Amino acid sequence: MNTQVVSRERSIFLSKLNFPTSSSDSRLQDEGNNSDVEGKVKNRLLSMWNNVKYGMKLKTNFSKESPVWLLGKCYRRIESPSSDSTELGTDVAAFQSQSEIASSDDEGFEGFKKDFISRLWLTYRREFPILNGSNYSSDCGWGCMLRSGQMLIAQALVCHILGRDWRWQPDHQPTTRESFIEVVNHRKIIKWFGDKPSRNSPFSIHTLVALGEASGKKAGDWYGPGFVAHLFRQAFKRASEDNYEFDSLTVCVAQDCAVYIKDVLEECTDKNGKWKSLILLIPVRLGAEKFNSIYAPCLTTLFSLKQCIGIIGGRPKHSLYFVGYQDDKLIHLDPHYCQEVVDVWAVDFPLTSFHCRSPRKIHLSKMDPSCCIGFYCPTKESFFNLIEIVQPLVIPPSRTDSPGSEYPMFIFCDGYSRDAQMSPKKLPPSELEYSMDSSTDGDDMGTEAFEIL
Length: 453
Hints:
Elements: H1 3-15, H2 24-29, H3 31-54, E1 68-70, E2 73-75, E3 104-105, H4 109-118, E4 125-126, H5 144-161, H6 177-191, H7 205-212, H8 225-242, E5 249-253, E6 258-260, H9 261-267, E7 277-285, H10 296-302, E8 308-315, E9 318-326, E10 329-333, E11 339-340, E12 360-363, E13 370-377, H11 380-393, E14 411-413
Parallel strand pairs: 2-3, 4-11, 5-7, 6-14
Antiparallel strand pairs: 1-2, 1-9, 7-13, 8-9, 8-13, 9-10, 10-12
């Protein structure tokens, strides 16, 4: 469907949501009730409209020849009814030796599907408790970046608690103590993202919106990937005050595309000298108004690293959570499908709405240049291994017309950020720095523009 037609129909659709009253007296008397009803009806109609757009079961084709990478796992011998090969494929082997590549997995398409379905899918929800200081009982139309951030952090928690090789098996009942513990931990992680204003759900949308208020944000505003990264850093610090399970985990956010190693080591060492597992979030901007294709091989290669937990970004005004790639297309989870809220504190609450069975792909060229890259390092050795492997991978290939002018996606710096006397070398040029201007391209999601931090 033409995007302009969709946008126009959406405007007409929402403009018809009027609720007249019979008289001025009754209008004054019922103003509060009508406002609540109007808000609920608008939320429901907007979610219905969203689900028409994003709920269609579109068929995603995979190439029979090219491997698929999914968060550090490689799946070969992909068998699909039709081929979708491309010309600009990026081969990880061209950037690093075989010994540095995460273990390949040759289960084929069935193995890929099991892996993809096991990732947590956190989407728009409706009919949750009203967000503080607003009349919003749904995040439909504005909370997509928050949901993408939730999925990124959920993947880190899955790796931390269940392990990267864990797979969700909905048709199997636990028969051993180990499998029972996995089921309990699976549900526990989902509960931490439950849609309610509770400190037992430290990463709920209610918590994130409340933390954003200190920076001038409120429910209904739009959030950039860098801003969301800092929200989760605050959320983890707050969660560790209430739950000992977060004492062994910390979040660090890079500054101006630079990771200061001593800052990370200090943050990850507890008072007893023990290492805290690290979630490293690196906000970057890979182009001025559009994604710069010179970074394409750098970006896709990151999905081959075992420390990679994904990338939050999307296409302009439309946030997505990227988890892998094949050739020059990124595989993603889309938070825009609006679902009924689930009471995650109910006994045996349903899990199906937290897992997506339909992988989707987007061409690299359609990606918004503003994004945030995530890594999970369970040990200090894993962190130093990441530094060693990733540094040559984030430098784009030299251009023949101006050799030596390439700028890395991000850099690692020795020392502390507080001691830096000057900007790190090889930072992106000024035209690639963040600005307050969000790119627009006439996309149909006119209400979901990124805000660049």
